[in-house]
Amino acid sequence: MKSPSLRTLLLIAALIGINVLSAFVFFRVDLTQEKRFTLSDATQMLLTDLPDDIHVDVYLTGDLPPGFKRLENAVRETLDEFQARAGKTVTYRFIDPDQITNPEEKNKLIDKLQQRGLLPTNLFANEAGKRTEKLVFPGAIVSYKGQETAALFLKGNKTASPEEQLNQSYEGVEFQLASTIRRLTQTAENRRRVGLLYDHTQVPPSRFADLLASVQQNYDLFFIDMSKPGPIAGLDVMLVPKPDKPFTEEEIFKIDQYVVNGGRALFFVDGQRVDSVSNEGTYAQPISLNLDDLFFRWGVRLNRDVVKDFYCAPIPLNVGNLGDKPNIQLLPWRFYPLLNNFGTSGNPIVRNLDAVLARFTSTLDTVRAPGIQKTPLLLTSPYTKVLKAPALISYNEARQQPDPKTYNEGTKIIGCLLEGRFQSLFANRILPGDPRANGFRPEGVASRVLICSDGDLIVNDVDYKRNAPYPLGFDRFTRNTFGNKDFALNAIDYLVDPAGVIAARARTITLRPLDKIKVDANRTGWQLLNLLGPLALVGLVGFIWQAVRHRKYGK
Question: Could you tell me the keywords of this UniProt record (predicted)?
Fold first, then answer.
């Protein structure tokens, strides 16, 4: 029989061996059902290959309500996982602005955070019968080699309940941090290339300014000159923003072969044109871009119509006089649908996305296309009415009370993702003597295309007084910012690499709320159990231990 001292030495040696082994072998076990502590493969690769130190200052901390405290814990747990993967390369700290007692220093910090893009949120609560207000910054400042940028944690769909929106923010913490780190650490060698097909739109550059500036944060942006001979090549994504001039057959051939050869493309196109609107009315005229056959071969049809939706944004209208001044009120404008229906796919492009503001949008239909998987991403509400172009559009219509029974055409597709091996529109049409036959492919490698039937989705308004663009998705009448920019940027990320950092947006954390009625009815019992239960458990273990010792060593 081994002596107690030998057993102790063996135990100490085993512990030392485990510690030495842990220095060379890294593993962590995630036992949660949703794998909430498991980072995506792309995030792990990003953290493993960090070229220099990353520091994160988190400003979401302090005396917070339970929902925001849960979000703070999610940020802390995610950063712990980042550290476990990257080691000392990632450091972080939590800073509570309310702990700064010097008003001048506190205001200086708040100004700095707002300049970096970290905007505050007002929290209201009732404490001791008094209504209190607290300013919180639900985000972080990520620093790398002297550069600083903000990571925003309070994301999600604003039409959801506060609990659901905070849970959506919880699900997006990894993506927000990982995408911010990717943006800071990208080098010229690993930046992807986005091509802008700009020569087919008459929209001025200032109306695309916010989107293109945001794209350039993560990608190299190039302009595609379709007049140059040769194929479209060397791009990771081609962006086609609101074309209003027809494409020639040669240009369609270039786009066709670009996609067939594995190129990814993102189209924001209209089925009709609305030049201007008056009180009396104007007509939405059908527009032909010569893309119909190409889209049909890919699996969608762009319709010549315009959507009216009960779920819509308002516009200001003069409804009469108030004294000697006009009475301006915001009235629902059903030609400006708010797209808050993202289908059932759970695709990371639209998961937890805020509503998208559309203007004079057309509809898409899906058609049979062998080898192509079609995923509707943007859809109207079920209370939709579709007018065939040419269709009369008048501001005066906003003053009229619509008949809900006429908005009965159900949900309509506005944006559709196409994935698979695309077949060429020109298959069996290129003769051997045709100059285009050299290098022609009737069917190629797997690729991805996303088509949206509203070119205005990526057009921002402009503040002409300041000569500056508004953020994409910002409605200057309601002062709300919708999810247009997030949708476009997520779409580009997904088209470039669906297994990249964008995959972290697919994370799902299930809300498991307590039954408030049962909690209130049994509150006292649960409080006593939490208070006395641990004491009783410790006492029981002590009693059993003493009984065992008494039986073993007692005479």
Answer: Membrane, Transmembrane, Transmembrane helix
Contacts of residue 222, defined as CB under 8 A and 6 or more positions apart, other chains included, come to 193, 194, 195, 196, 235
| Average pLDDT over every residue of 511-526 | 65
For 104-136, what is each residue's pLDDT tens digit?
988 898 898 888 888 888 876 555 455 656 788
The CATH class for the domain spanning 30-185 reads: alpha beta
Assess contact for 162 and 172: CB atoms under 8 A.
no
Q: How far apart are alpha carbons 491 and 552 in whole angstroms?
A: 70
Sequence-distant (6+) residues with CB within 8 A of 98 are 62, 63, 134
pLDDT tens-digit series, residues 40-97: 889 999 998 888 999 999 999 988 888 889 999 999 999 999 998 888 899 999 999 8
What CA–CA distance (Å, rounded) separates 289 from 310? 29
Between helix 41-48 and helix 173-185 the angle, nearest 10°, is 40
- Encoding tokens for residue 257? 């072969």
Model pTM score: 0.86
**Which among 262, 266, 259, 227 has a CA at the least distance from the CA of 243?**
266
193-496 has the same fold as 30-185: no
C-alpha distances out from residue 109 to 75, 96, 103, 150, 223, Å: 21, 11, 10, 14, 40
Level-2 CATH architecture, domain 193-496: 3-Layer(aba) Sandwich (3.40)
DSSP H or E segment with residue 237: strand 237-241
* Domain ranges across the chain: 30-185, 193-496
